[in-house]
Amino acid sequence: MKPQALPLLAWLDRRALRSAAIALLALLCLVLQAQAQEARPSADDPALEARVLALASELRCLVCQNQTVADSHAALAVDLRNQVRDMLRQGASDDEVLRYMTDRYGDFVRYRPPLRAGTALLWAGPALLLLGGLAGLLWQLRRRQRWADADFEPDPGPPDIPTKTENPHVR
To answer: What is the pLDDT of residues 128-167, one digit of tens each?
Structure first.
């Protein structure tokens, strides 16, 4: 008699197969993410490009508004990056570039606007919202506690349903 050959994966149980499939899927996701990285074009002057990137990271994209000029692909962001690059090539300092952008577009163009009277709400807003939420939570908890401490009559519940022995008309 010839011994029967076992299938290739017969010795693996389902748990091992599932773990291997998850590991393979995770590896595939990592590889796909690595391919999705965007390569920035190499510049003639790496020091200048580093300054452009640093300044563009401090400016808000006026189209996207939740991204910096360095991260955005909007046409206006590309124009602003080119403007920053041109100003730096002409010898402008970082402060001069930021001042020019702020004068032209207002404090909103700064990704982290300076603390002034006009921008104080931007800086204090999150803390005020957090304090307001905590105050509302405390108020609600105290209200519930007052209700729990009050002397309420217990609800008698639904009326008793007559049984067959109490009422002969009940089936």
So the answer is: 999 999 999 999 998 888 877 776 666 666 776 666 666 6
Q: Give the predicted TM-score (pTM) of the model.
A: 0.51
CA nearest neighbour of 58 among 26, 101, 12, 1: 101
SS3 category, 35: helix
Rounded CA separation 115/100 (Å):
18
Q: Which residue has the tokens 């590896």?
A: 27
**Amino acid identity at 107:** D
Distance in angstroms (rounded) separating the CA atoms of residues 66 and 36: 21
Select from 7, 23, 6 the least CA-distant residue to 15. Answer: 23
Give the bridge partners for 68, in sequence order: 60
3-state class (DSSP) for residue 37: coil
